[in-house]
Amino acid sequence: MARNVAVGCCGFPVARRRYYAEFRVVEVQQTFYKIPSEETLRGWRREAPPDFEFTLKAWQVITHPPSSPTWRKAGLKVDPGKADRYGYLRPTRENFEAWERTREAAKVLGARVIVVQTPPSFGYSEENARNAIEFFASVRERGLVIAWEPRGTWYSNPEALKRVIEESGVVHVVDPLRRRELVIRETAYYRLHGLGGREVNYRYKYTDEDLRRLLHHVLALPGTVTKVYVMFNNVYMFDDAKRFKEMVEAAQSGGCGSSTRPEPRVEPRR
Q: Is 112 in a helix, a strand, or coil?
């Protein structure tokens, strides 16, 4: 398997020193709540191995409205008269300024991927589709991958979702054990939140069969896909990511698990 497969976790589930010894990528979660100080970010970059990669989650100010519980959790406040200027990918000065702060954090960490996770309340509507296209197109730049994880009712109108992804140039973030990306790009970005029913089950521990299915999906991607991120975000993320990384390494070395036989069809979750 020639492509680069980066396996890691969404956040540090163990001490950073131990994590660095096991993985070569992490998705920073702190940037979603509040942008850490430049000193803190530089400290993370210095302590990590030179070949270690950071991706990061975009600041919630861009994606979530001020009424969101995560704003209150982070202690963020806004002038009530400007509440409708934040969140939901609105192409406003306030959101673009928040993006610049997110982008500055990415530069300090040397991150080439910013993950944008919109809340379920930002579901499909023509207004939301227009805003997403305009916002993403405005912040797109060479050398930066914007990876969007849509939630809510977008999958009730897959054609509209595909249009937003195609026109904005973002990478479609999915859990490939639940559904497939609608547009294939050079970079694939997967976030695994657990299985079991229609809702996310963070307490789910992936079975060996689950991980084999995941590996088969990665192996079956077109040759145009040169980088694949597989990021675990469940309670058992450290152990599950470690097991999957070992499967990937075995496949790359031609060992057990390198079979490219077709995987079972997975119907999208509605």
A: coil
Q: pLDDT for 97-133, tens place per residue?
A: 999 999 999 999 999 999 999 999 999 999 999 999 9
Phi-psi region of 196 (alpha: psi -120 to 50; beta: other; left: phi over 0): left
φ/ψ of residue 125, rounded to 5? -160, 160
Closest CA to 68 of 56, 86, 91: 86
Calpha distance 262→220 (Å, rounded): 8
What distance in Å separates the CA atoms of residue 27 and residue 191, rounded to the nearest whole number? 10
What is the spatial distance between Cα 184 and Cα 225, in angstroms, rounded to a whole number? 8
Domain boundaries along the sequence of the chain? 4-252
CA–CA separation, 26 and 188 (whole Å): 15
147: burial class by Cβ within 10 Å (0-12, 13-18, 19+)?
buried
Tokens of 4: 């680069």
* CA separation for the pair 156, 153 (Å, rounded): 5
Structure tokens at 227: 């980088």
Q: How many whole angstroms separate alpha carbon 241 and alpha carbon 236? A: 8
- More confident site: 196 or 12: 12
Compute the Cα dihedral for 23, 29, 31, 36 and give only its sign.
negative
Sequence letter at residue 195 = L
CATH code matching the domain that covers 4-252, chosen among 2.60.120.620, 3.40.50.1380, 3.90.180.10, 3.20.20.410:
3.20.20.410
Q: Please report where in the chains the tokens 């689950």 appear, as a residue.
A: 210
- What's the pTM value of the predicted model, to 2 decimals? 0.92
